[in-house]
Amino acid sequence: PSFEGEERFYLHYNFPPFSTGEARPIRGTSRREVGHGNLAQRALKGMVPADCPYTVRVVSEVLESNGSSSMATVCAGTMALMDAGVQMKKPVSGIAMGLISDAETGKYAVLSDILGDEDHLGDMDFKVTGTADGITACQMDIKVKGLSYEILVNALKQAQAGRLHILNILVDTIAQPNKDVKPHAPKMITRVIPNEFIGALIGPGGKVIQELQKATKTTIVINEDPTTEEGIVEILGTDQEGIDAVLAKIDSLLFKPEVGGTYEVKVIKMLDFGAVVEYTQAPGNEVLLHVSELAWERTENVTDVVNMGDVFKVKYFGVDPKTRKEKVSRKALLDKPEGYQSKPPRDHNKGGGRDNRGSRDNRGRDNRRDDRKPRDDKKED
After folding, report:
1. What's the pTM value of the predicted model, to 2 decimals?
2. Which of 10, 224, 305, 371 is the right S-S partner for 294, CB 3.0 to 4.6 Å?
3. Residues near 160 by Cβ (< 8 Å), separated by ≥ 6?
């Protein structure tokens, strides 16, 4: 933030004296450097995507100059941003146009990519930047009282031809922005999650998020969108594997299998009564595959059908009303073997159920207590 507002894109332009063969001390930033830097910043700023998670700073160090170093800054800045992995909407090029005119005869000549002498002795310095589709910024300095509409139109047309020529050379060097930032650059990934999952990601007392940051060597920042109330998760780190691990954890938290759906799972633990499997698309999201759901045939040992690390597909049945746990089945996706007969349901009323019992009042009672002799208080020696 600054007195002029908050910026996410900066461009600093440095023009030391030695770049033009002068020998004088380097002092503070000159007004010329500020002006040229602002022009180049305006030229590129519109092509930096609004969802870019970084605050970007481009520094132009002019080492030698005999022309428009500000337009060179625009061209070099475009290539630098694309090489750095900033997803530029379109590449930008720039050119400085000049003018030599005779007021008495009305003759004039529009110059392209003017040199230092042409700038000093000419009547105009017209800088134009833009993409293949249009202009992004322009700035004009003139030494005459005014320009005719004809001169302005010719200058813009000539500038367009020059910009497109430079743009073709630029695109031949780097046609598209790199897909990722440099290995040494901090990476920042933003994910949006439903509000109800924020607590699960943080964990009790922040336990889950702290352990995740320690294991992945990343920094995780969670904010709530004041408008949508959704959770905005920012993941910062230099190791792509660590960032991918955090994203996988978020995916596992958000993963919700649908009843009747088919999912690929991997065996991660063997038990006597089944196998614990995890969904391959949501690592860490586990479910028990009971031994009775492995195959249609009777399975004595779980290892007869599956083993550690096996990957296969299962069908999801939701929560079993009996066990109140999630149920998946492997055999539901297999064809029944020939001659297979399903086991008939158990007849709970066979042999008489509780409803067929006789009344307790019809039972014979033992009245032997009434026939007993009175107990002696003292035992005989």
Report:
1. 0.61
2. 305
3. 128, 130
